[in-house]
Amino acid sequence: MEFIRNAWYVAGWSSEIDQELRRFTILDENLVLYRKSDGAVIALEDRCPHRLLPLSLGKRIGDNIQCGYHGLTFDCSGKCIRVPGQNNTPASAYVEAFITFERHNIVWIWMGDKDKADPADIFDLAEFSDPDWEAHQGDALHLKSNYLNVAENLVDPAHVSFVHPTTLGNSASENVPVHVSTEGKVIVAWRWIRDSEPIGFFKKFGDFTGNVDRWHYYYLHLPCTAVIDFGSAPTEDAIAEDDRNKGVRIFALHFMTPVTGGYTIDRWMHLRNTALGDEEAAANMDAMFRIAFDEDKAILEAVQQEEERPAKRRPIRIAIDKGPMVYRKRINEMLQLERTHDVASDPSPAFVYHD
Amino acid sequence: MEFIRNAWYVAGWSSEIDQELRRFTILDENLVLYRKSDGAVIALEDRCPHRLLPLSLGKRIGDNIQCGYHGLTFDCSGKCIRVPGQNNTPASAYVEAFITFERHNIVWIWMGDKDKADPADIFDLAEFSDPDWEAHQGDALHLKSNYLNVAENLVDPAHVSFVHPTTLGNSASENVPVHVSTEGKVIVAWRWIRDSEPIGFFKKFGDFTGNVDRWHYYYLHLPCTAVIDFGSAPTEDAIAEDDRNKGVRIFALHFMTPVTGGYTIDRWMHLRNTALGDEEAAANMDAMFRIAFDEDKAILEAVQQEEERPAKRRPIRIAIDKGPMVYRKRINEMLQLERTHDVASDPSPAFVYHD
Amino acid sequence: MEFIRNAWYVAGWSSEIDQELRRFTILDENLVLYRKSDGAVIALEDRCPHRLLPLSLGKRIGDNIQCGYHGLTFDCSGKCIRVPGQNNTPASAYVEAFITFERHNIVWIWMGDKDKADPADIFDLAEFSDPDWEAHQGDALHLKSNYLNVAENLVDPAHVSFVHPTTLGNSASENVPVHVSTEGKVIVAWRWIRDSEPIGFFKKFGDFTGNVDRWHYYYLHLPCTAVIDFGSAPTEDAIAEDDRNKGVRIFALHFMTPVTGGYTIDRWMHLRNTALGDEEAAANMDAMFRIAFDEDKAILEAVQQEEERPAKRRPIRIAIDKGPMVYRKRINEMLQLERTHDVASDPSPAFVYHD
């Protein structure tokens, strides 16, 4: 599977990376991640250029890594600084190093052309620093699914009525059309369901006594970050579309990390403008999210298995697919652009070991 | 693996199919099977044409199926009757439907050209309705083996001497030649072993005091149904070949369902002209069949593994292989016929998902 | 993977082979091994030429094997001597037989051109029969690794400093260069570490009070036998390189059997000139070897996994790789020689079963 390389991906929650040498697989590449003694996150190619042993099986010598097979030692830039048994270190003795950036307890990584890496491009949200909001990290959901199908799911408000009928959707929204627009690198798919029974999530966390106006805004930040802005307000308040902060409002964030062509990690968290400081409410919300996201997992993994079988005819597209279709189109454009303009890519074919 | 499509296959025992949506794989195709409220068995392609989710993961709305991802709903003919979020249902929104037929607590399915499906062609046996006989369903034996090798085993009386020495064969039959004839779509391979010790099965169920005349008739109804007619009578009775009802006579029926090219389900049952109404005897017979068929399973799965390895030379054929050889020849003729005459087959190459 | 066929390989310890029919896989070929009633080891192709059932699933009739499916019977030369149901045995009814040789409780097998099999070529060591030495068989270490990487490890004195720091190496040897020479079919890689702390192994088994002179000689007998001659003597004794019997000296023998292209069995044992007759010391030494060889296993299996992935660039070679590099070169020469001169090889392409 071909991946977009010139993009910031989430490597992990900050809590997943410490002084130990740990392997992470991102865009089908194996990396060793660890923190230097000063806390900075280092990401190196996890394969010694000599006999190919993963460096994550070696050991730290200060901030450097010594390979566990013959002791070749690499500094944080990936440069080999020692080859036991000889005085020189050949120029070809190096591992690739990757740029990382940490913010809001999230570690981002840049897998592409280093000249194009700009931390200003990293996803951020004003609400992370807003005292009226509170952020709460959830889990890392492992999905045996390619990331494109995960992303489709996250720019698709229509599925909640059928996949999450007890938590994030209900039958009131089944036939409501979806609106889609794009703003730069963000695709937005949304719909409002006015004057209907609250969904399970807001029955539990909204204290609503009557019908509500409910919204679902799916913001897909290309290529792999999704913000689901959903919430409800009493129908009697008749709030305007731009006045969503007047209701109970939740942002469910999903950071998709393509691991391989058939495996994706979805690290999810939420921000909320309600129950501030209430850890129990946060835990209860996450419990409800887990129910919903496990429902997605079951579906996405079944779809992946079907896609791996031969098919008799092309799948069909329907009206509510507009978000997913725009997403696929934009991804293909980005891939096409990288194919033609990325001077950093290696033109030589991959070398495969055979005996 | 190429399968014969214009044939009736057993989809399952009647007891395996109920109101639940269940996936069955037949001829490498995934189907969802369920009973309508009137009890009729419905068989549909188990894959939504939209996002490919198996319909068996959806839910029933009356006799129809609603897909679990976006709610597309299909009636019992496979036609899409609802696409949430839009008013029309595109013509390409359908799943394939398959013809089924139920008799003697067995559900048959037709996977080929619908115009050629004729229930009159379905295997039947007068003894199912004969008061002097009793039928008893056994198990569904799962075999990691292609169906051709399973079928060979079921048109091969010679193997019982070596594979089933304690149940269905003994050393008396080791060197007895096998006769083979064909009658239309039935291949018969048989032999008589006169004046010898009873086999284990008839020691237990025959009450014989001395030597017996024993027969094994293997009827292979092309492509996938086998009737093993075996029995014994006291040698002193000197029964004629056509007088087998005078002895203790058993029909072991095997309905082979090719699941994939390397997996077959053999649903087996027996009919007997002895111990009528004796459920304990029936259970004891099945216990002995289980011993024997597990011996076949061990051999067929080992053969499958060997066939998947490269070989240095072609396997040899010997005199007792006449039944299997006729079987292979007939299967190849049937496949050839379908290749050249089946106008219902789809001429376009299979579409495979890639990203 | 292409293997050298004209060579003696270890099939197993003598204790692994008895009267039972057992499958062994060597050079990606499945064999059935068993002892005749006179104790001689028979090795036959483990696949009946009729329906391909492994003969190891059949049963012994005296010294012969009867196939478990239809009773074809093969003698110890692989010739079919009985086909039930017919009087003749076709010439094509045979299995390949392999030459074996047993000595020092080790069973060797010749997988190549029979005319070239000469037991005089089998690895031997005078110390097996020397009263000043004692031999002790260890284990059969199963490695998910091709044999070439295992062999590299066994002609590479440099890795012990990093892979086995508590048992067979320590930091004193990290930077000591390696010498390599070849003597006929033996590659020798060695180094001395003079005047340093004893390694873990000799702390436990050497009774040394001060610094020692330590040696590691890695003899790789092409293609698959390794003798690691290692030992220590008090530095104050200043022994000469050829005087190693004056110190505490151990031979660790490794017999590599390539099972498949990705799987190798390393049967290892030791000979020692110390603690003669002391079974407890022998067991303690083996316990320490197990720690060390499990360290090798972890590394070799990780390297195998990496080699199976595509690579961006060729691996580098460094100064201490001289032994492994000579080994690879010699193996390639031997393979090339067999390709061009082995008249026994089958020129026809392998036959693969397909349906």
From TrEMBL, chains A, B, C:
It holds the Pfam family VanA_C. Transmembrane segments: none annotated. GO terms for molecular function: dioxygenase activity. The keyword Manganese does not apply. Keywords: 2Fe-2S, Dioxygenase, Iron, Iron-sulfur, Metal-binding, Oxidoreductase. Residues 8-109 form the Rieske domain. This is Aromatic ring-hydroxylating dioxygenase subunit alpha. It comes from Roseibium algae. The lineage of its organism: Bacteria, Pseudomonadati, Pseudomonadota, Alphaproteobacteria, Hyphomicrobiales.
